[in-house]
Amino acid sequence: MISNDTRVILEATLPLVAEHIEEITGDFYPRMFAEHPELLNDLFNRTNQKSGSQASVLAGSIAAFATLQLDYDTATQREIIERIANKHASLGIVADQYPIVHKHLFAAIVAVLGDAVTPEVAAAWDELYWEMAHVLIGRENELYAAAGVEPGQVWRTVTITERDQVSPDAVSYTVATTDGSALPGFVPGQYISVQVPLADGADQIRQYSLTGRVGDPTWRFSVKLDGEVSTWLHEHAFDGDGLRVSTPYGDLTLPEDDGPLLLASAGIGCTPMIGVLHHLVATGDTRPVQVMHADRSRARQPHRGELGELVAQLPGATLYQWYEHGVDGAEPTTRIGYIDLADVPVDPAATALVCGPAGFMSSVRDALVDKEVPAERIQFETFGGVR
C-alpha cells in the first residue's frame, strides 16, 4: 500500500497527469524502443503501436490504478491486475523488465509535464509505479508457479497436426508436442501466445483462445485473417510445421460455481466460448446457459456448425444469433441486425463472459446492466487489439 503522503500528492496531481496521460505514453514508447528496438520487434504488438491503441491501454491502466489508490476498490484492482498479469505471463515478462519501463516512462513524464514534476511529485508517482509493479510481479510469479514453469520460461515448439478452414477467412490449428507427450492442461476460456518470424526479422506475438477440450493431449486454436501475424500463419503454417507457442493463460475463464451462464461473442470472439462449451458438454453440465453470437453473415461465421452442435448437446442451453445480413430472421432465435437484448430474457443471477470488438462489448455490457446483471459478474476479453 502507498503511504498517506503519497496519496495526498496523487490526489492533487492526478487531474494533471490524467489530462496528459496519453501524451506521456505517446512519448514513452518511442523513447523505450529507441534504446531497446528488440522490444518492439519481438515483444510488443507493432500494429497496436502504429494505431496508438497500446498507448491508450497503458494510459488507462496507469490512470485506473492511481485512481484506485484514492478510492480503493479491491474487486476492480483485482480485475485490472489479473488481466495485465495474465497477458504479461503469456509473453514471458519478468521482473527485470520493469526497471526498463520505469526509466523511460518517468523520462516521458518529465518531458511532458516539465516543472510540474517537483521532487515530491516525482517521488509520489515513483512509489505508485513500484506499488503497481510489485503487485504485478507477484501475481505473474504466482501464474508461472501454477503453470509449473520458471518466470518467463513459457515458450515451447509444437507441431501442427491439423489445419481446418472454419470460415472463409479463419483457420483452425491443432498442435501437439514434438515428442508425442501431452501438452499441459488449461482452464476453459484461456489463450496461448503464438510467436512467428516475419520477413523483416521481427518475431511478433499474438494471443489466440484455445477451442479444444480440457484434457486433450493437443491444443486447438483459430486464427482470423486480420494483421501481419495472422497473415503469416495463413500463408506459412501447415500440417507438419513447427510453431513457437506459450503456456496457456487468461482470465476470461469458466467460473468455479455452477450458476447460470451467459456467453456473448462477436465474430472470431466465439473462440473462448467454444472452449467453454466443449468443457460443459464433456462434463455433462445441466446449468442454464444462454449463448449469444453476432456476426456479419452465416456464410462468414467461424465455427458456426460447431457452435450449434455444442449448444444442442447441453440440455439447459439456448442459442441466440444476430446477423447483419444474409438471413430472413424466420427462426425465433435468429435475428437480423446488430445484437439487441431488449426482448431476450436474461437471468440477473448469471455470470456473463463477453468477447469481441470494443463497441460490441460496451453495448452488451450496457444491455446486461439494464437487465440487472451486476457489473462485477460481467467479464470481458477483447479481440483485435490484444490478438
TrEMBL record:
Name all Globin domain ranges: 1-141
Give the reactions, separated by semicolons, that this protein catalyses.
2 nitric oxide + NADH + 2 O2 = 2 nitrate + NAD(+) + H(+); 2 nitric oxide + NADPH + 2 O2 = 2 nitrate + NADP(+) + H(+)
Q: What class of enzyme is it?
A: oxidoreductase
Establish whether keyword DNA damage is in the entry: no
Please name the Pfam families in this protein's record: FAD_binding_6 (PF00970), Globin (PF00042), NAD_binding_1 (PF00175)
Q: Name one GO biological process term.
A: cellular response to nitrosative stress
Residue ranges annotated as transmembrane are: none
Q: Which GO terms describe its molecular function?
A: 2 iron, 2 sulfur cluster binding; FAD binding; heme binding; metal ion binding; nitric oxide dioxygenase NAD(P)H activity; oxygen binding; oxygen carrier activity
Keywords for the protein's UniProt record, in alphabetical order: 2Fe-2S, Dioxygenase, Heme, Iron, Iron-sulfur, Metal-binding, NAD, NADP, Oxidoreductase, Oxygen transport, Transport
Q: Which cofactor does it need?
A: heme b
Q: Which residues form the FAD-binding FR-type domain?
A: 153-255
Q: Specify whether Iron is a keyword of the entry.
A: yes
Enzyme Commission code(s) on record: 1.14.12.17
Q: Which superkingdom?
A: Bacteria
Its family?
Answer: Belongs to the globin family.
Put simply, this protein is called nitric oxide dioxygenase
Q: Which organism is it from?
A: Gordonia humi
